[in-house]
Design a protein that fits this description.
The protein is an alpha/beta fold. 23% of the residues lie in helices and 29% in strands. The chain has helices at 51-59, 107-117, 132-143, 149-156, 183-195, 221-231, 260-270, 272-287, 321-336, 368-376; strands at residues 2-14, 21-23, 45-46, 49-50, 64-67, 91-93, 99-101, 120-125, 167-170, 206-214, 237-244, 294-302, 341-347, 357-360, 363-366, 383-390, 393-394, 399-400, 402-408, 414-420, 427-434, 440-447, 465-466, 471-475, 478-485, 489-495. The strands form six sheets. It has a ten-stranded mixed sheet, with helices on one face. Strand 14 and strand 15 form a beta hairpin. The longest helix has 16 residues, at 272-287. The protein is globular. 51% of the residues are buried. The structure holds alpha-L-arabinofuranose. The site of alpha-L-arabinofuranose (AHR) has 10 residues, from loops.
């Protein structure tokens, strides 16, 4: 019997809604086909954006979207993506399949997408192959509300009003695809480029420096150390990238049809996020004990082999209950580190890597990962509660069987999100909520076999269902609850 405790009287930190963000790159069928089909498409759309996808993202209360990359960002020249579509410059997407990028989705389209979804805009600038002037002019184009060459150009292109750029990334993976720089060099480059990311008017742009690319084998704390030491005071946020790759980068494994061993290896590797956030956070604490600089985990998720028969450069993979477990546990980790983690963006929104949505022509399916984001959206803007769990260790990797986080929203409701990582064993749980006399208001669960997934033939094979059988009783000032979590499940219980 696992013992679970939640302290309703011990509120820790606000959970930034942006922890539940997404990342959408010009990669494979994410932007084109997945999000943007063009105004003339037979697929229902508003100003070119797929209506089904926009509606699904609205239902997630998607707080923020990062664009245009990724590696694509450091080869993207924003002026190619404005003005008349027919005359926009075509380019080769060298990173992702060598396909022609026709630039029909550019700044105006991205801002229109954010407007339709109702989310904040996180734009990633080009440091690797772009100039300071180019970056400065992009900021001016998007945000300046006055008389200037870029503001006039924006007006001529049909948008006299400036947009709000909430977050701006100064380069992406500049230790790799963004220019192969060393940390000392990038720290100086960052200081220079960010100088020209001007704040026009009252709005403040949250500036994000490129952070460490990490893996279990090379957690890369040195990058964070050097950036914080040399450029910490010039940034609002520092990014961190971590992908869960079960196996080897050169010999990736399949998204479906895996065995129990690979299932546990995947979870073992994804749980490493906790150590990464903790230890990169400790490095940041040395230079920023007040935690002013946010940790921005703007790329995370599973990375498997592509689906058979698809373009290897498109990174299209299926998404199973295993991915739901990765999503549920990773989001719990971010919640628990809400004092430092300011934003996170799963890679990626549609048809790429650990996608929340898959499309095939006019068809769309929601993945198990989508359902976890939907179940967890109650944590957005809530306050993290102190909580702890005594649980068994399972598999040869000794991962915890259960993992959780809990928050209280502004109406006093308590939300507990709990994952049972065992592929085969259910888990009885005894929960004590200290200092709250509450009952179950709502409970939902996502469960199945580890390999269960949705397909275009059956899009509802994995779906949340009501979670029943929770017993509660008030004991003095506390509430006691007991329930059994089925194997391979993610549950959300709301108490009121
Ligand atoms: O998300 C796919 C790629 O992974 C991104 O373009 C890059 O930043 C990372 O290496």
């Amino acid at each position: 019997m696992a013992k679970y405790g939640i302290r309703a009287d011990k509120k820790l930190y606000p959970i930034h809604p942006e922890i539940y963000g997404n990342f959408s790159e010009h990669l494979g069928r994410c932007i084109y086909e997945g999000i943007y089909v063009g105004e003339d498409s037979p697929i229902p759309n508003v100003n070119g954006m797929r209506t089904d996808v926009v509606e699904a993202l609205k239902k997630l209360s998607l707080p923020v979207l990062r664009w245009p990359g990724g590696c694509f960002a450091d080869e993207y020249h924003w002026k190619d993506g404005i003005g008349e579509k027919a005359t926009r410059k075509k380019m080769v997407n060298t990173h992702w399949g060598g396909v022609v990028e026709d630039n029909s989705f550019g700044t105006h389209e991205f801002m229109e997408l954010c407007r339709q979804v109702g989310c904040k805009a996180y734009i990633n600038g080009n440091v690797g192959s772009g100039t300071v002037q180019e970056m400065a002019e992009w900021i001016e184009y998007m945000t300046f509300d006055g008389v200037s060459p870029m503001a006039e150009l924006r007006a001529r292109n049909g948008h006299p009003e400036p947009w709000k750029v909430d977050f701006f990334g100064v380069g992406n993976e500049n230790w790799g695809c963004g220019g192969n720089m060393r940390p000392e060099y990038y720290a100086d480059v960052y200081r220079r480029y960010q100088t020209y990311v001007r704040n026009f008017g009252k709005e403040r742009i949250y500036k994000i420096a490129c952070g460490a690319g990490t893996s279990m084998e090379t957690p890369n704390y040195e990058w964070t150390e050097t950036l914080m030491k040399n450029a910490g005071r010039y940034m609002n946020g520092l990014s961190l990238h971590y992908y869960t790759v079960p196996g080897d980068w050169k010999d990736k494994t399949s998204a479906t049809g895996f065995d129990e061993d690979l299932y546990y290896i995947t979870l073992y590797r994804s749980l490493f996020m906790d150590e990464l956030v903790t230890r990169h956070g400790t490095v940041m604490d040395r230079y920023d004990p007040e935690k002013r600089v946010g940790m921005i985990v703007d790329e995370w998720g599973t990375w498997y082999d592509v689906e058979p028969g698809t373009n290897p450069g498109f990174l299209y993979q299926q998404n199973t209950m295993r991915d739901a477990m990765v999503a549920g546990t990773t989001l719990n980790i971010f919640n628990k580190h809400a004092d430092r983690v300011r934003m996170a963006n799963i890679a990626q929104t549609v048809n790429v890597l650990q996608a929340v949505i898959l499309t095939d022509g006019a068809q769309m399916i929601l993945t198990p990962t989508y359902h976890v984001f939907e179940m967890y959206k109650v944590h957005q803007g809530a306050t993290l509660l102190d909580s702890c769990l005594e649980t068994d260790r399972i598999s040869q990797h000794a991962i915890p069987q259960l993992q959780e986080s809990a928050s209280m929203d502004d109406q006093g409701r308590i939300h507990a999100t709990i994952c049972n990582l065992s592929a085969t064993e259910s888990a009885p749980v005894e929960l004590t909520i200290q200092c709250a006399k509450v009952q179950v208001a709502e409970a939902v669960i996502l469960t199945g076999n580890m390999d269960d997934h949705n397909t275009f033939e059956n899009g509802t094979a994995v779906e949340p269902a009501p979670f029943t059988g929770i017993q509660t009783q008030v004991a003095g000032e506390n509430t006691l609850a007991s329930f059994t979590l089925p194997a391979c499940s993610v549950a959300r219980i709301t108490f009121q």
